[in-house]
Write a structure and sequence with these properties.
- The protein has 251 residues and is an alpha/beta fold.
- The chain has helices spanning 2-6, 23-33, 54-61, 74-80, 107-113, 145-155, 229-234, 240-245; strands at 11-13, 40-42, 66-71, 84-89, 93-94, 97-100, 120-124, 159-162, 169-173, 176-180, 197-202, 206-212, 218-225, 236-238.
- The strands form four sheets. A six-stranded mixed beta sheet has the order 3-4-7-8-10-9, with no helix packed on it.
- The relative contact order is 0.11.
């Protein structure tokens, strides 16, 4: 209901629709997502690849590597300073493993999908690309994170949307905003971090991320400037209220 009220252009699910990759779990997940009245972008998570679950993923949600494009009309393109949004969803999972990778065999495919240079460029994958505070050892960063980050920098990707660690956090890297989401449908959280989901609002000047919590709270977490690539590389703000709510140190 809360997602519907926002009337989003796209809804992104960054993996772990299931606990064990079983067909009945996929059936339940697909039924739950049917209520979302917006185009869906779904990437598989490590739990979804368990027990050969990636076969069920393909049955219910299509290819594990997909390209989605939302083209804007001229008026909206001018207002938002972008011709549209190109979103790549990647499968970073490995069967029955918690670790993940993309693999160099997919790097050229990633390059080929971003065919519209003036689009907002977005990458979606389950495993995180950089370490997330408050989540313990970082053995689950994708194994080829450095190489993938280099490709994304080369392509001028604006947003990388990740999950896996159940803790919302945000990094600015070479002009790219890395937005890690929490968990919205389980209580598998760390410490006093609450279940949550992210709302991204984009206009000509900035990308703003709001974190939503089960009690209805909506908290501004990040402002990322879009003014120029040079300014973007330097202008990245995480609010002090967000740091405090996640029990992280505040200067």
């Amino acid at each position: 209901v809360r997602i519907g009220r926002l009337q989003p252009d796209l809804v992104v699910v960054a993996g772990d629709l299931t606990a064990g990759g079983y067909v009945w779990e996929y059936e339940q997940a697909a039924a739950a997502l049917e209520s979302v009245e917006a185009p869906l972008v779904v990437a598989p998570g490590n739990h979804d690849a368990r027990n050969v679950g990636y076969i069920h993923f393909e049955q219910w949600f299509g290819e594990r590597f997909q390209c989605h494009r939302l083209e804007f009309d001229d008026e909206r393109a001018q207002r938002l300073a972008t011709t549209g949004v190109t979103v790549l969803s990647l499968d970073s999972s490995e069967p029955d493993l918690d670790t993940g990778r993309i693999g160099r065999e997919w790097y050229d495919w990633i390059r080929q999908q971003f065919q519209h240079p003036d689009d907002l460029k977005v990458l979606v994958l389950h495993h995180h690309l950089v370490a997330i505070p408050g989540t313990g050892r970082e053995s689950n960063v994708i194994e080829d994170a450095g190489d993938v980050l280099a490709v994304l920098t080369e392509l001028g990707v604006d947003l990388a949307l990740t999950g896996h660690k159940h803790v919302p956090f945000f990094w600015g890297l070479n002009g790219m905003l890395v937005s890690n989401c929490g968990t919205a449908a389980t209580r598998r959280v760390r410490g006093t971090v609450r279940p949550s989901w992210n709302e991204l609002r984009i206009d000509a000047s900035a990308i703003r991320v709001f974190v939503h919590y089960p009690d209805g709270e909506r908290q501004l977490a990040v402002i990322r400037s879009r003014a120029t690539r040079e300014i973007v590389r330097e202008s990245f703000t995480v609010t002090q209220a967000f740091f405090s709510s996640n029990h992280l140190p505040v200067d």
